[in-house]
Design goal:
0% strand, 315 residues, MetI-like fold, single chain, mainly alpha
Length: 315
């Protein structure tokens, strides 16, 4: 098992390095001079040259790349081309907001998907199982931003129970923080919960047809008892893999949800940087999102190895 984990770590490092090269080169392919964008069209050639030296864009690309990646390893993302401020503290603050949103949404999505998906599989011939399957299919078809707008219309505009937008740090007012967290979390979790419910239902249905579950039931266990005691661990194996993929999808979906609810997370920061053509901020935020996605994939691979005894045996 240790060898397999080391292999996964090596894959993580190589993938991250390749991602830094791709993101760096892609940002350089975008037309426009950062110094010209920062100073405007009326800037003098002398001032442009001075600004290029300040930004470091006058140096060879290979030097710029190693300076940037070296800064990433130290947690130094550089200075914004537009605001001329340090990017690192802002990324750290925005990352905390996005992680709170994504982790809370995934917890809610799993709390919805595991019991509903299991029940839909066990009762797949009953009306309740059919209704859960149909509801999850409908949830998969609804985009996250549409779910967010509907939730705002119902609970904020119509009923007035919850605020429609904004963000309050938990250290300032925890009650208001929770009230403002509910709608964006539900908007993210509803779609992901529907997707995970489908996967849980499929995994449990497949496990229920296995011989060892029929043997357990022949020994006197109920259908649900045999499933809980002998089947859920095996059903968890594909669900763990899908959950890792869906967390990555949550991170991407949070970009839109943060904009809808005016939440100061990484997604809002990325969209603002794109609008201002702040290329260094864009590539830094993108690499943070890539790193989070790769870390999640690494955790999923490790959990997969721990949960599945066949993986440990092959390792």
């Amino acid at each position: 098992m240790a060898i397999r984990i080391l292999i996964n770590l090596a894959r993580f490092v190589v993938t991250y390095l390749v991602a830094t090269v791709v993101v760096f080169l892609f940002m350089r392919l975008i037309p426009g001079d950062p110094a010209q964008i920062a100073l405007g069209v009326n800037a003098t050639p002398e001032l442009l040259e001075q600004t290029r030296k300040e930004f470091g864009t006058d140096r060879p690309l290979i030097v710029q790349y190693f300076d940037w990646t070296g800064g990433l390893l130290r947690g130094d993302f550089g200075v914004s081309y537009v605001t001329r401020t340090d990017i690192s503290p802002l990324v750290t603050d925005r990352l905390q907001v996005s992680l709170i949103l994504v982790i809370a949404a995934m917890i809610v999505a799993l709390a919805i998907a595991i019991p509903l998906g299991t029940w839909a599989a066990v009762k797949h011939r009953n009306l309740s199982g059919v209704l859960i399957g149909a509801g999850s299919q409908l949830g998969v078809a609804i985009p996250g931003f549409l779910a967010a707008i509907l939730l705002v219309l119902i609970f904020a505009v119509g009923l007035g129970w919850l605020p429609a937008s904004g963000w309050t740090p938990p250290s300032e007012n925890f009650g208001d923080f929770l009230r403002r967290l509910i709608l964006p979390v539900l908007a993210l979790a509803s779609v992901q919960g529907a997707i995970l419910t489908r996967y849980v239902r499929s995994a449990v249905l497949e496990i229920m047809s296995e011989d060892y579950l029929r043997t357990a039931r022949a020994k006197g266990l109920s259908k649900m008892g045999a499933l809980v005691k002998h089947g859920l661990r095996n059903a968890a194996i594909p669900v763990i893999t899908v959950t890792g993929v869906q967390i990555a999808a949550l991170i991407i979906g949070a970009v839109v949800i943060e904009r809808v609810f005016v939440i100061p997370g990484l997604g809002s920061m990325l969209l603002d940087a794109v609008g201002n053509r702040d290329l260094l901020t864009v590539q830094s935020v993108v690499m943070v999102l890539v790193a989070i996605t790769l870390v999640l994939n690494l955790v999923v691979d490790v959990l997969y190895t721990i949960v599945d005894p066949r993986m440990r045996k092959s390792a």
